User: What shape does this take?
Amino acid sequence: MKSKRLTAALLTALFMIYSFTACSQTSAGNTPAPSPAVAAPTDSAAADSGAAPAVDAPANDASANDAPVEISIANWPQSIDAERVKMFEGYVATMKERYPNITIVPNEYAYTVDSFLPKAASGQLPTLYSTFFTETDKIIGAGYAADITDVLTELGYVQKLNPDMLALLQRDGRTYGVPNGGYNVGMAYNVSIFKEAGLVDANGIPLYPQTYEELAETAKTIKEKTGKTGLFWYTKNNQGGWMFMNLAWSYGVEFMKQENGKWISTFDSEEAVSAMQYVKDLKWKHNVIQDNLLVDGDDMFNMFGTNQVAMAYSTLDWNDPLITQTGMNRNDLSLSRVPAGPVDRVSLMGGNCYMFNPSSTKEQIEAAFKWLEVTGFSPEATELTQKGLEEKYENMLAKNLPVGPMPLRIWQSGDIAEVEEEIVNARINVDMNLWNEFCDGEGVTIHPEVPMNAQELYKAIDNIVQAVLTDENADIRVLLSEANATFQKDYLDNAQ
Amino acid sequence: MNRKIAAALKRDLTSWILLGPAVVCFAVVLWQPLISGLTLSFFETKGYDAVRFVGFKNYESIVSNSEFAAALKNTFSYTSWSLVIGYFVPLITAIILNEMVHLKAFFKFACYFPTIIPSMATALLWYFMFNPGKNGVLNSLLGFAGLPASQWLQNQKLVIPLIVLTMTWRSFGGTMLIYLASLQSINQDIYEAASIDGAGFLAKIRNITLPHIAGTAGLMLIMQIIGVFQIFQEPMAMTGGGPNNASLSIMLSSYYYAFRYFDAGKSMAAGAIAFAILAILTIAYRLASARIGRGGGIA
Assistant: This one.
């Protein structure tokens, strides 16, 4: 009887614990999803053309690969976004006309931290998906991105892509993705609050603070004059650490270095103490940041977009969520350079990239690049890419997003950048004076993420930022040296 | 022996046939993932693929990670606070409701209502209530009363009790209904007999009500410990585990290992540690209650 009860109790515990531990498991992670199009080698082109397939081959360059290929494309717009759906349907029509053997399967999946792993582990990733630079390291490490080195080499893209960005997608000399948009962090200004505070020049352009000291002063003025929050400071979901990088590097912090092949964590420095002291002062000395101290980018969109806060770190690719989620007027948004610290003026490089389902065949990856070309992603300006880019910017106009500021250049050579600039210049819908300083980036050092365990480092910094902002008596020196030691022990020591 | 088993099987054949589908479901949906999760915790993983057997390395690395110590401490803190704040609320409400004559159905519904709301929604609701600015809902109320604004969830000492408070608010209704059912099954004659013997309200509660529902109360205790020990959604939605890991729980940390760092092995190891702790607690409870049962007839 007793043992029965025991078993019953154990089983109860077991069921409960199961509810979490098993939430996203499949026993076989990488079971290669059968790709139906390739698995069925019915050569329709050859069959159609009867006895002389070679002569009958159509004049397009894909003649060698006419076997049917099916690819699924992520980030397909949802039906409520009618403009984009129309645009994508246009791409499909072009694909059909050019490459009749390629079947496009729309997939509305868009990368999120929570959804990616189950999707990838169950082999359900779309052939082509898109993600952020911050995520690529773990995706490559987990084997959820196809090795596209050969296809890239054949296409001749390797030399043409921005090497700094490409480096983020490479491991041991192999490439696992292509950058599709590069951004560096800037400081976003809410123009209407700046006007309210009288902090604008004769043309209505905000008086941008040029140093971090000025930033704090400006934030104070805004709070005094408008009662609104001067500055938004990121603190959670690793974004506290991520955005702190801009400040820390400008203060001369070095987070890690390599000595004799060993990585050493080095952020218990005096520079780091002063950078963190700056963060602490924002709350306890100047009192200019938001009341809620457990916040991330989503909170920024809400607060900034609804005119509750005047300044925040932001990037060009956040314009879209910021404006579409909150209905903010695009003319109230300005992005400028990050302020300068005592040592430098550093801006973190971010961006997004395309990656491919690891079980894709070479033909599928090639087909996906053809799709990308149709959407305007290619170093060479052709009629096709030009059309794709025009549609992209028309769509941004239709959604009231700022058109004018250009992201970092992805392509080093080829004439696509010039053509894109022409296309954009013909469609500018904002006052470029609100964006020029950012786009020129004068004096700004663009810095890629730290090479080792970036996310874990961000998490460690998140904790310190939270501690100094929520506890007036927090000892920065102690917090930093503890975190530095822990980061070394937990991560860098294991990464040799 | 074999013949005995065969005979037993034959005797219970119908039961086995009836049980069959459920057993298959349990095996596929519950036991298999549980076992493969446990297996995975002993492997170095690449995504969800086991790459190399590493023995207890994942466990060592988790246990030596300073974050885990915080998570473990917090998880016990959540559990004890939930017993302090939440354990007696449903019991007392049930006793009160049981004594009520009017509006009983309304109050039953009112108490159960928060349980119907999805937990993520309640977490967000409370998140807004606890907004630390002077415009936060609770801070506005404090302002009306002339009291200073509180930091609420940003206070490292308050964050766990506050999260437990919201969980209690959300889930006490369900437990209360179970107590109520148990209370209503008590034969009213016993109460009448006690009244005739001169027992007062408290004496009746102590001598009739409590012994009668002790079994249920014991089960609820275990369920609550098991449930709260796995707390995850609330800190994720309300604090992300902050400030400075003050509300990080084992399950949240397991979630981060899996989804933020793609380290399935460590995630499973964290889950397995929680499972082991719960199993030990449960066994300890059963042993203790069996001992009490022999002495005093409870459970």
